[in-house]
Amino acid sequence: MKNELPKRWVENLEVLDIAFQPILNIHTGDIFGVEALLRNYQDIGYKTIFDLFDDIYLENILYSFDIALREKAIKKFTKIKNYNAIKLFYNLDNRLFEMPNFESGNTAQIIKNYNILKENICFEISERHELKGESTIDKTLHHYKDESFSIAIDDFGIGYSGYKLLYDVEPDVIKIDRFFLTNIEKDAKKKLMVRNIIHLAVQLGIKLIAEGVETKEELLTCRDIGCHLVQGYFVQHPTKETSEILETYPHIAKLVKRNSRSNNVKENIKSNLDKIDSLKINTNMSDVFDYFKKHQKVTIVPVINSNKEPVGILLEEEVKDLLYSPYGRSLLLNNGSKKSKLKNLIKPCGSTDINSDTSTIIELFSNDTESKGIIITKNSKYYGFLSARSIINIMNAQNILHAREQNPLTKLPGNSLIEKYIDEAIHSKETYIMCYFDLDNFKAFNDVYGFRNGDRVIQLFSDILRKNLNSSFFKAHIGGDDFFVGVKCSNETTYSYSFESNCSLDIENCSEESSCAKILSIEHIIHKFINDVKEFYTPDDKLNGYIVSKDRDGEAKKFDLLSVSAAIVEVHKKSKQRDKNLLDNVFSAQKKVAKHSPKHFSISTLL
């Protein structure tokens, strides 16, 4: 294509620069790619990038300008260390397809000049400008995909045609708009919406990028609900210095490792993984036949691109159906036939990282009734395949593990998980509220009303915990009439405390995630139980407000009706005394204070 740019735009291109923002594997902190972002547009008189492209569009030179800018970005991309191992995400203005001089093949020539694979380029399209005409989509985006370029939908969810675009374009990547990720850890509605987008995308074999992530809470929540990749200021601000683009980002790697699942989970996945030899997407059908002759027990084959990234699966039954149909073998071996192209025979397949939680894998599998299994990746490369049978084995192992770690009466997590939770809280750099609950006068109640009613009281308290504390709380049963609750919260302490006195809560200034808000939730549990447990008593005992039973010395004594005491300890973000033995001592002292408190709870903080 000839350079058709007016002189002033050639000069403007010299002023403009490219910044890169990294896109990371959300499970490891390793780089997956970079997005090219335009900079210095203010220096040529534009307030925004959109104003710049609107002018270029109106001058009818959008395609010519974009090709020149594309080469500028690709040239700078090659300055990044190990650029051939990552992807370049390049934003397309959809309107360039309307330009009279639009033609295919220019990008292929550019990357050939710079020794870059097509699989290393991902074109981003947005809902910001409508794609006009089905023929335009067929002519361009499908052409890019056929040529092994990747396609990403940017800002997914902000426009009116998102799902239609998803259907028409069949993208490789979706970038979830920042709106849905802002404070997602606190917003159940956003979490549900993003989770549903993820479920749909994964079943279609599409990767998900959490775009615009600005806090560690957002990052960890996005990881936990199934996002594959992450981008945003929390990772790194866009930079014009290619030397600042790293292969691994230590602060992300450290964060996700500290908050990662047990090694037992990963080993459970690995032990069930089938290391099936994959096929490359450009494999000819004659070699596909040879593959099945060599691997006679294989019925599902993962298919990968030149970068070893999974693109789907090939089913042996479909190849056989075609092979045994009239003229089937001729069609498969005829290079002019669509059926001779392996890429036209592959089926979408869900994929996830080896570091994913087993619940993510099970959820992906369960949401697709026709699923043959899940492709497992490691740093976005094909690693193995989990068949339906393997996933069922994982589910069974997880159920057995949960059963072992649960209290048999309440089905709440037991002591091993409590110890793990406390250990993680102490060694993190977050603010945690932890609470031990102890039912008061429980032995006397058991002696008078019997163990069966005692069990019913225990179940009542566990139900109150489940129904009145949201999912941010870790709820557990130590055993007998002792329970444990923990929760991560914001850093501010909005109550005054002393080791021997009751606290006073600043209710008006309590934010939803603050320490005091969490303590108010615990206080509500106390009041709820004291009120509800009265229904277990006879009318006379309820009226008297006590029962008569024997004390430990065998003497008859009046005992108050059942209540519950809560010993609460805040492990503050800035606490220097993060020691488990000290925590145990503080809890022991606070339990005694709580027993004698008219409010039934006491609070202390590790400073």
UniProtKB/TrEMBL annotation:
Source species, domain of life? Bacteria
What are the record keywords, sorted?
A: CBS domain
**Matching InterPro entries, A to Z?**
CBS_dom (IPR000644), CBS_dom_sf (IPR046342), Cyclic-di-GMP_PDE-like (IPR050706), EAL_dom (IPR001633), EAL_sf (IPR035919), GGDEF_dom (IPR000160), Nucleotide_cyclase (IPR029787), Rev_trsase/Diguanyl_cyclase (IPR043128)
S-adenosyl-L-methionine listed as a keyword: no
Domain (EAL) ranges? 1-252
Q: Which residues form the CBS domain?
A: 269-331
**Coiled coil ranges:** none
Listed SMART domains: EAL (SM00052), GGDEF (SM00267)
A molecular function (GO) term: cyclic-guanylate-specific phosphodiesterase activity
Concerning Pfam families, the annotation shows: CBS (PF00571), EAL (PF00563), GGDEF (PF00990)
- SUPFAM superfamilies in the record: CBS-domain pair (SSF54631), EAL domain-like (SSF141868), Nucleotide cyclase (SSF55073)
The protein's matches in PANTHER family, at most eight in alphabetical order, are given as: CYCLIC DI-GMP PHOSPHODIESTERASE PDEF, SIGNALING PROTEIN
What name does UniProt use for this protein?
A: GGDEF domain-containing protein
The organism is: Sulfurimonas lithotrophica
